[in-house]
Automatic annotation (TrEMBL):
Gene3D superfamilies: P-loop containing nucleotide triphosphate hydrolases (3.40.50.300). This is Putative ABC transport system ATP-binding protein. Keywords: ATP-binding, Nucleotide-binding, Transport. The keyword Oxidoreductase does not apply. It comes from Micromonospora echinaurantiaca. Signal peptide: none annotated.
Amino acid sequence: MTAPLLVADDLHRCFGPTRALAGASLRVDRGEVVAVMGSSGSGKSTLLHCLAGIVRPDSGRVLFAGRDLGALSDTERSALRRAAFGFVFQFGQLVPELTCLENVALPLRLDRVGRREAERRAAEWLDRLEVAEVAGKRPGEVSGGQGQRVAVARALVTRPQVVFADEPTGALDSLNGERVMRLLTGAARETGAAVVLVTHEARVAAYSDREVVVRDGRTRDLEIAA
Ligand SMILES: Nc1ncnc2c1ncn2[C@@H]1O[C@H](COP(=O)(O)OP(=O)(O)OP(=O)(O)O)[C@@H](O)[C@H]1O
């Protein structure tokens, strides 16, 4: 049996008096799309932030490809995040001063890929996300659905091993939301990326292979989808 790509083991995390995680565990296999569901305030985003090495759990461990994130220095953890993870959030993740093409090219530029090559790959991803026509526009000049597809392109352009998506369709109508989910999960499956998807919408979770429910900071598996 191959080792899971990402494992959260009995995570606990408090913010002051608020207990956000109280024994959350999760495993994600390579290429698997896992939906993390639950009501508002149940701890979904905190779990995602712990898995991505953005928030440190008070206790419990997160292992990525067998490496304990808690044992890495801050520099090592950010290097790992840049190399292996992609992120899509609900709003505001695009840089407003850059064009959509430059936004998608940015993670490659930060990895010292030359401008021409970075923009060539960015253009391919915009095309794949069916949003090539906004390449020269700034994020403020595109629709919400187009902006999210640009954000998905930016998350995938570095070919991450895991895409973390926190309510990626939360600000979209259902038609645009479904389009973003179809393109996100389709592209992730093609590139072999796993997806950890936080959502409270069953229709969005239906794009996953497996659903996990968080309640009062604890996880439980709901079902294995067919
Ligand atoms: N940085 C923080 N500072 C203080 N409290 C926080 C912080 N982050 C989360 N919390 C609290 O921890 C609990 C879990 O929050 P979390 O954002 O993980 O829930 P969620 O399930 O993602 O909620 P939602 O669906 O509303 O986004 C909540 O009570 C929240 O108020």
